[in-house]
Specification:
605 residues; alpha+beta; 5-stranded mixed β-sheet; Helix Hairpins
């Protein structure tokens, strides 16, 4: 093998390319990281705050709808997976309620927020935490299904009425189930629409469920309302229904500001006491391990710069090492293939298959090619030897008889001339068979197709071999399945069938039968030649269509034929687009089957 310059070797080029790619990728990645870190950190701060508020709002909603924290673990884990944050809930004395971190993980020193929907509203304005009761805390004010249906009917009627007056509204529902009509721009409907539609008062009036809850609220509020008798402020606390918060008690505007604050504080305390049994206890919320999400997690300090450079160097070193190993493994089988290809042709060298990648597939293909080449070479040698043998025998006989005749030792009588003619005919048959096989191999085998009746074809073949069959004491029979037609060359089909019938008669003992049959199978016509002869062994069946093959190697050319007939049959069938198959049971007989495409019957004149 000629020496390849170092710079042109595949291994060197692959390593150099890998190093170049690694350097470029590391440099580009470093530049991109530095260029985008500041912007990403700014965006991260806002996103982290938004995520924190979403988490708080979700957990507040859970607390508003459940009397305790049972089952909140699933919600906590779902929020943790969604936001990528650690979420932990504890009671006010740090007793764990739920935690997305593994058991035993320590809590941050400071809680991020307190989850208490009775004193914190995270529902009314998304992303904000307002003071007051969360509207999702419904408790005894939740409407029944019948009440919802009645209010929904009134709301739909008023919405239709408003639409007829050119005022489009949107129907929404409060957490308690009360319908609310708002304009598409968010404003309330104008008074003239409400008066015309006559449904606003009915929509805002407390339902029986709300009236019952309001009555309970009044009773609780009496304990803290100032004044007694004529000076009682109880009448100044009236019931009302608002669109967003449902039924509640409010203070009449006929009192001063100071008294209003006192009365409202009393009402709020009573409402909290009324709703408390329906809400989970207040809990401490810990997020992200207690770290401040607004604090930058990355800065280009000298230490971090050292880390970047060290990481880039490590990536480069690993890339070079991996590339060298991979390249070496890739080059090794290629070298083996090159060495095997440079061996002498008659050595038929093989290469080991060590991988299952492209080089492994290439090595397998190389070995298959070498094996086919060796097999074809053996077949070529055997073919030359067989052809020489087949031609030598008749030529030797013809030459011998001609020499003795020329020397006057034998008279050229009709018997001698007949024997010489028979040898010449046999020699011509071998040459014709070889010519047909050569034409088939070269793809130049000519066919003259025409509509052929299977009945007529079998009758002609049977008639042509009836004399030979009678001399061998073998009965020839034909069996056809209706009128079958083929689009084929009748001469070539008679040749193929004749070869099969000749073989069948030759190998059928006296008193036996050879049957020629034709039948239809789907889109094909099946021609079969069955005999009651000695049969073929199972191990010999795969080779019956090979050239110069004989099951009994001791048989002479005269009793065994030239060994080319069945090979010609197979090629003729392939040229017609059909197949040739053989089946046999030793001691019972053999069946040779020709399967050809069927054709429509020709139109009558």
């Amino acid at each position: 093998m000629s020496r390849i310059p170092l710079r042109k070797r595949l291994l060197v080029r692959m390593v150099f390319t890998s190093v170049l790619i690694a350097v470029c990728s590391v440099a580009a990645t470093a530049w991109l990281a530095v260029a985008t870190t500041t912007r990403a950190l700014r965006e991260e701060q806002g996103q982290a705050l938004a995520d924190d508020m979403d988490i708080l709002a979700e957990l507040s909603g859970y607390a508003a709808g459940h009397p305790d924290w049972t089952g909140v673990e699933k919600t906590v884990r779902s929020l943790s997976e969604k936001t990528g944050r650690r979420i932990a809930l504890t009671t006010e004395d740090r007793t764990p309620i739920a935690d997305s971190a593994p058991r035993g993980a320590s809590l941050p020193p400071i809680a991020a927020a307190t989850v208490d929907p009775l004193r914190s509203d995270t529902y009314t304005e998304r992303g904000a935490q307002l003071s007051g009761i969360d509207p999702r805390v419904v408790g005894p004010y939740r409407l029944t299904s019948d009440e919802r249906a009645k209010l929904d009917a009134l709301a739909a009627k008023q919405r239709t009425c408003a639409a007829q007056r050119g005022y489009e509204t949107t129907l929404t529902h409060t957490p308690g189930g009360r319908p609310v009509l708002t304009a598409d721009d968010g404003s309330t409907e104008p008074p003239y629409v409400a008066e015309a539609c006559l449904a606003t008062d009915a929509l805002l009036a407390p339902t029986p469920t709300e009236q019952k809850a309001l009555g309970e609220l009044r009773e609780q509020a009496k304990d803290c309302l100032p004044g007694e008798g004529e000076k009682s402020y109880a009448p100044l606390v009236v019931a009302e229904v608002t669109g967003g918060s449902g039924a509640t008690l409010s203070v009449s505007p006929n009192v001063g500001d100071k008294e209003r604050r006192v009365l409202q504080k009393c009402v709020d305390a009573a409402r909290i006491a009324q709703l408390e049994p329906y809400v989970a206890p207040a809990a401490e919320l810990f997020l992200g391990g207690g770290d401040n999400p607004a604090t930058p997690r990355w800065n280009m300090s000298p230490a971090n710069k050292t880390k970047v450079v060290g990481t880039a160097g490590l990536v480069l070193a690993v890339t070079v090492a991996v590339s060298a190993v991979v390249a070496t493994r890739l080059v090794r089988p290629l070298r083996a293939l090159t060495a095997a290809a440079q061996q002498p042709p008659d050595s038929h060298a093989r290469v080991p298959v060590t991988t299952r990648d492209e080089t492994g597939i290439l090595a397998e293909a190389f070995n298959d090619l070498a094996e086919r080449r060796e097999r074809l070479e053996a077949q070529r040698k055997a073919l030359v030897a067989d052809v020489a043998h087949e031609l030598r025998s008749p030529l030797t006989n013809i030459r011998g008889w001609l020499e003795v005749t020329r020397d006057g030792l034998v008279d050229p009588d009709p018997v001698l001339l007949g024997a010489l003619h028979e040898e010449a005919v046999l020699l011509q048959r071998v040459i014709d068979d070889l010519r047909d096989l050569a034409a088939a191999d070269a793809g130049t085998l000519l066919l003259h197709r025409e509509p052929v009746s299977a009945d007529d074809l079998l009758a002609q073949v049977s008639a042509a071999h009836r004399v030979a069959a009678k001399e061998a004491d073998v009965t020839l029979r034909t069996d056809t399945d209706g009128s079958l037609w083929l689009d084929a060359d009748p001469v070539r089909l008679r040749q193929a069938l004749g070869n099969l019938v000749t073989n069948a008669v030759r190998h059928t003992p006296p008193g036996g039968t050879v049957t020629l049959s034709a039948r239809r199978e789907g889109e094909a016509v099946v021609l079969a030649i069955a005999d009651t002869g000695t049969g073929i062994a199972a191990e010999d069946l795969p080779y019956v269509f090979d050239r110069f093959w004989r099951a009994e190697k001791s048989r002479s050319r005269r009793t065994g034929g030239s060994g080319l007939g069945l090979a010609i049959v197979r090629h003729l069938m392939a040229a017609h687009g059909g197949t040739a198959e053989a089946a046999s049971t030793p001691g019972t007989g053999s069946v040779f089957t020709l399967r050809l495409p069927a054709a429509a019957a020709p139109a009558e004149d």
